[in-house]
Amino acid sequence: MEERKEREIIAKIMKINVNRKSELGLALSGGGARGLAHIGVLKVLEAYDLQPDYLAGTSMGGVIAAAYASEMSPGEMEQIAFEYAATRKLLQLADPTLPRNSLFHGERLRTFFDQHLQGRTFADLRIPLTLVAVDLNSGQEIHMREGLVADALRATVSIPGLLPPVERDGQRLVDGGLLNNLPVDVVREMGADVVLGVDISTSGNGDSPWQNLNHSRLVPAAMEELITTLGESIDLVMSQQIKHKLKECPPDFLLRPAIPPSATTLTGFNQAAGLIALGEKSTHSVLPDLREALLPPLTSTP
């Protein structure tokens, strides 16, 4: 009798698993202003009722992921992007400092995050979220899932040289793109069955968006060459580690919107409409296969 009950329980569990819809994980890469393309990806997914069950992001990818997890719609994100497309508006987020360990303080940026997220913690989010940073003290990749989301965002966007590290619990946290710019493995570990990765970083093939910083007004003229060299160096490291990561843990679907080099990491915000449209276009290309992958398998059991 006990053996029969055990078999019935196992059968029920198996039936539940067989009929369960696959859960979607979305991994969004860093890439500064180029990350506005992520909004287009989310617009298409939402239009076809394909809301991610898990989110992981690095740098700008983390910003977009956090906004969506906090119940901000892609349309609302798009409006904010259009608002800050003007250089004069973007400059309101810049708080220059004497170049000791960074070009900007980053406090205005953190305040911006906290205001738009309305002081939310990770526990307040509607979708599980992981943000990626790197601890300079230990050299380790850090996965942030607790505390104020604005604090974690300030850490994941801390591009060395532009923003100072975030000091927390004996750690000095900087942009997670140094070790994991496209956190496919992170979102899969969170429980995703199907992973869609979106890579908007530079290709590492010589098409450097940092070369277009000249006369941007976001960077002092005397610092342009230094920031360009630093940015290109970081991009090279990121492109190599993305290749390595993708071999170790490839996503089920990978999008690489055809973002032009003119859309720079720092100054591509004035191309918001075009970048969002490129994200939409690339998502439509995988939509049929993605929808099929998320369907529960057919069963003969009534």
Explain this structure.
The protein has 302 residues and is an alpha/beta fold. Helix content is 42%, strand content 13%. The protein has twelve helices and eight strands. Strands 1, 2, 3, 4, 5, 6, 7 and 8 form an eight-stranded mixed beta sheet that branches. Strand 7, helix 10 and strand 8 form a beta-alpha-beta unit. Helix 2 crosses helix 11 and helix 6 crosses helix 7. It is globular, with a radius of gyration of 20 Å. The protein starts with a helix and ends in an 8-residue tail after the last helix. The mean pLDDT is 84.
Structure described in brief:
This protein is an alpha/beta fold and 302 residues long.
* Secondary-structure element series: HEHEHHHHEEHEEHHEHEHH
The fraction of residues assigned to DSSP E strands is 5-15%
Q: How would a textbook summarize the main sheet?
A: 8 strands, mixed
Q: What is the mean predicted local confidence, pLDDT? A: 84
Radius of gyration over all CA atoms, rounded:
20 Å
Helicity range:
40-55%
